[in-house]
């Protein structure tokens, strides 16, 4: 079945996707032609490379590399790092007209990453009074929102006020302007005060969403106050009953499944790679999957493309700069299929 029968984007709109939420600065152990910090504990690392990071920021870069027209709604620090983010987005072709600067000295989060082995990596976040959580209702402009086919909300933006209210306002305005809502649950423990808050705000946005993407753990957190311990099938049925057209549930290396409102389900596995780190896979997955969806591909092809892009990202040393072009993902899939066989990722 053609995906356009699931999601009907308003093709007359100028932007494909607006992304709202977390943006930070990643400091990754250097791994380039000059310096190679091999797998080691963070305390032993001397040289770092700086990148723009944060899941929705990365996905904005990822979909733009596929030729989609994206804009970012967020708040950055009023300093050199804030300028770095805006310059980087501008260079990538992402619209920055709706990025505000924090007014009271709040700083962008700094993410120091630790690569311990191909199976273990961690992040160390410096994120007190984070600038991105200063996004407020005054930063949400209906005339801007209505110009987009879809709005992606990253769940981290719900962790604190005033960003929380800004998200809720954006979702309310999106709904009345036929802007599809994509909820990337994107749970990060920092900034959340307790699990009831997580369930209250995640479920509030999930109930309004057309597409929901998250790991099993993220769905469990979302569903805590609705019905704990749901199976994947039960979760999908519940969110479909609230109006979601596509529910994607990820199980890391075990694979992921997209459930469509017409009761179909499609599953995919990761493409085998030697990973440099665990994080960033979700952003590659989101970029590739959404690109396919906007192109009107069959769901299984969207999943394969997203899974390939995820594998490429965990293999890489960073989360934004290494996001691949469409041709690079296609070449990666061709190569992996030559090595491992045509059905390597398909379940
Ligand atoms: N070691 C790996 N090798 C290949 N692919 C991987 C590996 N780890 C993760 N992936 C891919 O990345 C996808 C997303 O990873 P995960 O399920 O951890 O989601 P996530 O928590 O949203 O990620 P992120 O930390 O980027 O937000 C997986 O569904 C899988 O396709
Ligand atoms: O915040 C993180 O989880 C790690 C970041 O380094 C990265 O940019 C990211 O946001 C991955 O989703």
TrEMBL record:
InterPro entries in the cross-refs: Myo_inos_IolC, Myo_inos_IolC-like_sf, PfkB_Carbo_kinase, PfkB_dom, Ribokinase-like
Keyword Metal-binding: no
Residue intervals of the Carbohydrate kinase PfkB domain: 17-325
Main enzyme class: transferase
Keywords (A to Z) from UniProt: ATP-binding, Kinase, Nucleotide-binding, Transferase
SUPFAM superfamilies registered for this protein in UniProt: Ribokinase-like (SSF53613)
Gene Ontology molecular functions: 5-dehydro-2-deoxygluconokinase activity
Enzyme Commission designation: 2.7.1.92
Family as reported in the entry's similarity comment: Belongs to the carbohydrate kinase PfkB family.
NCBIfam families: myo_inos_iolC_N
Protein's name according to its UniProt entry: 5-dehydro-2-deoxygluconokinase
Organism taxonomic ancestry: Bacteria, Bacillati, Bacillota, Bacilli, Lactobacillales
């Amino acid at each position: 079945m053609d995906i356009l029968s699931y999601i009907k984007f308003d093709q007359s709109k100028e932007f494909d996707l607006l992304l709202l939420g977390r943006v930070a600065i990643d400091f990754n152990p250097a791994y380039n032609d000059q310096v190679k910090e091999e797998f080691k504990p963070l305390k032993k690392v001397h040289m770092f490379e700086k990148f723009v990071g944060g899941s929705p920021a990365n996905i904005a870069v990822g979909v733009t590399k596929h030729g989609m027209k994206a804009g970012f709604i967020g708040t950055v620090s009023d300093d050199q790092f804030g300028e770095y983010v805006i310059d980087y987005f501008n260079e990538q072709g992402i619209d920055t007209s709706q990025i505000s600067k924090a007014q009271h000295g709040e700083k962008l989060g700094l993410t120091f990453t630790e690569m311990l082995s191909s199976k273990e990596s961690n992040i160390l976040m410096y994120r007190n009074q984070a600038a991105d959580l200063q996004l407020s209702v005054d930063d949400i402009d209906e005339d801007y929102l209505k110009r987009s086919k879809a709005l992606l909300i990253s769940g981290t933006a719900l962790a604190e006020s005033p960003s929380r209210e800004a998200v809720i306002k954006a979702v309310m305005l999106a709904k009345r302007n036929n802007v599809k809502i994509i909820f990337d649950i994107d749970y990060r423990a920092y900034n959340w005060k307790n699990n009831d808050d997580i369930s209250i705000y995640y479920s509030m946005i999930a109930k309004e969403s057309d597409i929901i993407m998250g790991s099993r753990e993220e769905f469990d957190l979302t569903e805590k106050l609705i019905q704990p311990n749901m199976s994947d099938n039960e979760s999908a049925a519940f969110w479909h009953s609230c109006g979601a057209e596509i529910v994607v549930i990820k199980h890391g290396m075990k694979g992921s499944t997209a459930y469509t409102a017409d009761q179909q389900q499609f599953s995919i596995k990761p493409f085998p790679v030697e990973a440099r780190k665990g994080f960033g896979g979700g952003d590659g997955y989101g970029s590739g999957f959404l690109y396919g969806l906007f192109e009107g591909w069959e769901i299984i092809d969207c999943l394969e493309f997203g899974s390939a892009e995820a594998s490429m990202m965990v293999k890489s040393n960073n989360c934004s700069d290494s996001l691949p072009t469409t041709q690079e993902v296609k070449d990666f899939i061709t190569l992996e299929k030559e090595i491992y066989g045509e059905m390597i990722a398909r379940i």
